[in-house]
Amino acid sequence: MKLTQPSLALCLLLDAVGYFTYAMPFLGEFGDLVWAPISGLIYYKLFGGWRGALGGFFSFAEEILPFTDFIPTFTLGYIAQRLGRKKPQSGMVTVAK
Questions:
Q1: DSSP annotation string for the chain
Q2: What interhelical angle do 73-84 and 49-64 show, nearest 10?
Q3: Which distant-in-sequence residues (6+ apart) come within 8 Å of 41 by Cβ?
Q4: Rounded to two decimals, what is the model's pTM?
Q5: pLDDT tens-digit readout, 37-53
Q6: Distance CA 63, CA 5 (A)
Q7: Helix (H/G/I), strand (E/B), else coil: 5
Q8: Rg of the Cα trace of the chain?
């Protein structure tokens, strides 16, 4: 399965949506109730595989639980995927027998 790599701009935008749902007076927690399942599903679709499923669950939990809106879930997922990607070995010399 090929993992997709969403752009950093998209991840920042999706984190901003999560922040702004809490910024609405009197509707912040209701906005989180609406945004939480959407956030989890988007995370799963963007990152895919077991990491997408785990991150989607974390994204859902982060949005649904009170006082956790400051966690930039999508941006952390982007960074984790960038750092966890294995780079191809270049410049290797093979010796034929």
A1: -PPP---HHHHHHHHHHHHHHHHSTTTHHHHHHHHHHHHHHHHHHHH-HHHHHHHHHHHHHHHHSTT-TT--HHHHHHHHHHHHPPPPP-SPPP---
A2: 160
A3: 56
A4: 0.79
A5: 999 999 999 998 888 99
A6: 22
A7: coil
A8: 17
